[in-house]
C-alpha cells in the first residue's frame, strides 16, 4: 500500500511539473494574431497552429492524470486506520518530576523576599496527569 501511495505521489508531482512547463511554453490568445500576419511564429517546430493544438491537448492529458492521482491519493489516505478522537485528546503532556537535590539547589538560588517565605518543594502545586481537553478547557465563571 505504501509503495502504491509513493508511486501515485511521484506521478502526481511529475504531471504537475509537466503542466507547469507546458503552460509556460504556450502562447497567449494575442500571439495567434501575429502569426496570421506573417510573424516568426509560423517558422516554429509545429507550424503556425500545430503547436497550439499539441500543447493544449498534452496539457489536458496531464491535467487529467493529475486529477486522477489526486483522487486516488485522497481515497487511499482515507483507507488507513486512524485512531478515534481529536489530536488534542491524543496529545499527552508529561512534566518530569524535579529531583530532590535539584529542587533544593534551585530553591537555594532564589532569594527570599520579605513578603513571601522561601518556597519549598512541597508547596509547588501538582500538575494534573492528563491535560484538560474539550469542554474542560472552557473557563467557567
TrEMBL record:
<dbReference type="InterPro" id="IPR004692">
    <property type="entry name" value="SecG"/>
</dbReference>
<dbReference type="GO" id="GO:0043952">
    <property type="term" value="P:protein transport by the Sec complex"/>
</dbReference>
<keyword id="KW-1003">Cell membrane</keyword>
<dbReference type="GO" id="GO:0015450">
    <property type="term" value="F:protein-transporting ATPase activity"/>
</dbReference>
<dbReference type="GO" id="GO:0009306">
    <property type="term" value="P:protein secretion"/>
</dbReference>
<keyword id="KW-1133">Transmembrane helix</keyword>
<keyword id="KW-0813">Transport</keyword>
<keyword id="KW-0811">Translocation</keyword>
<keyword id="KW-0812">Transmembrane</keyword>
<dbReference type="GO" id="GO:0065002">
    <property type="term" value="P:intracellular protein transmembrane transport"/>
</dbReference>
<feature type="transmembrane region" description="Helical">
    <location>
        <begin position="54"/>
        <end position="76"/>
    </location>
</feature>
<dbReference type="GO" id="GO:0005886">
    <property type="term" value="C:plasma membrane"/>
</dbReference>
<keyword id="KW-0653">Protein transport</keyword>
<comment type="similarity">
    <text>Belongs to the SecG family.</text>
</comment>
<protein>
    <recommendedName>
        <fullName>Protein-export membrane protein SecG</fullName>
    </recommendedName>
</protein>
<keyword id="KW-0472">Membrane</keyword>
<comment type="function">
    <text>Involved in protein export. Participates in an early event of protein translocation.</text>
</comment>
<dbReference type="Pfam" id="PF03840">
    <property type="entry name" value="SecG"/>
</dbReference>
